[in-house]
Amino acid sequence: MALYVAVNTAGEAEEGTPAEGRTISGKPQFRTWNVEEADGGLYAGIWEATPGKWHIEYDEWEFCHILAGTSIITEDGGEARKVTAGDSFILRPGFKGSWEVLETTRKEYVIRL
């Protein structure tokens, strides 16, 4: 087993959409290249979404680094935050709100359950 793992979009992407009942507007489509699944609930890879808006709820901790595109992330009862290429942020367990993709958005992620 290699101890160096490149994080890229080589290989087949998993395709998806927001969970049933969570879409607010549009028809967002997701592609995910999950390149790491480690014991203890650690995941890393690249995720991409097309324009649309949906409700999000986080039970996990996630670090995100935006590679391309523009999105607006709004916490329930909080301010809307515009994220673009180069932005990095953490969504902590318990975060609830919405994710709106204005321009197809691609991010690197690390998730800890």
TrEMBL record:
<dbReference type="InterPro" id="IPR014710">
    <property type="entry name" value="RmlC-like_jellyroll"/>
</dbReference>
<dbReference type="InterPro" id="IPR008579">
    <property type="entry name" value="UGlyAH_Cupin_dom"/>
</dbReference>
<dbReference type="InterPro" id="IPR011051">
    <property type="entry name" value="RmlC_Cupin_sf"/>
</dbReference>
<feature type="domain" description="(S)-ureidoglycine aminohydrolase cupin">
    <location>
        <begin position="37"/>
        <end position="109"/>
    </location>
</feature>
<dbReference type="Pfam" id="PF05899">
    <property type="entry name" value="Cupin_3"/>
</dbReference>
<protein>
    <submittedName>
        <fullName>Cupin domain-containing protein</fullName>
    </submittedName>
</protein>
